[in-house]
Amino acid sequence: ITSLINPQVTHPREAKDILAQVIVEEFYDRNAAYAASKEFRHQFTERQLPSDIETKRVDARRVDMVALLRGVGFAKTNSEARRLIVQGGVSFNNRKITDPNATVEIDGEPVLKVGKRRVCKVSVAETDES
Questions:
Q1: At what angle do helices 30-40 and 12-27 cross, to 10 degrees?
Q2: Burial degree of 39 (CB within 10 A; 0-12, 13-18, 19+)
Q3: Are 94 and 111 in contact (CB under 8 A)?
Q4: pLDDT value at residue 127
Q5: Are 84 and 74 in contact (CB under 8 A)?
Q6: Over 70: is that where the pLDDT of 108 sits?
Q7: Phi/psi at 46 (nearest 5 deg)?
Q8: Which helix (H) or strand (E) holds 20?
Q9: Per-residue model confidence (pLDDT) at position 92
Q10: DSSP state, residue 44
Q11: Would you say 4 and 10 are in contact if contact means Cβ atoms under 8 Å apart?
Q12: Residue 106 · residue 123 · CB < 8 Å
């Protein structure tokens, strides 16, 4: 265990990964620990999208960013949504959004990201035309 806390022997990121695997394995199993470690590296070290992105549905094809952030649950209030946008923490389809008055067109299933951890695909909810 001393090799884990010695930065000359083990890089701190690797030590955290090993410790996390030990903890997950204690509560689940070795396969779950390995899968969690792999997903973490995939998402944060390699900067890839998570493997299991949730798809959130919205009512309109064209929507303003503040309403979109509230609609998918990434902001509780309009002012929180505006703050996230102005501070540069929001991207839509790999494009950073910094204008709180911006509107976006939802075509297909674009990816909405807020910060590093909140990610979802967005699609337009189908309406019944009966």
A1: 140
A2: middle
A3: yes
A4: 59
A5: yes
A6: yes
A7: -90, -5
A8: helix 12-27
A9: 96
A10: I
A11: yes
A12: yes
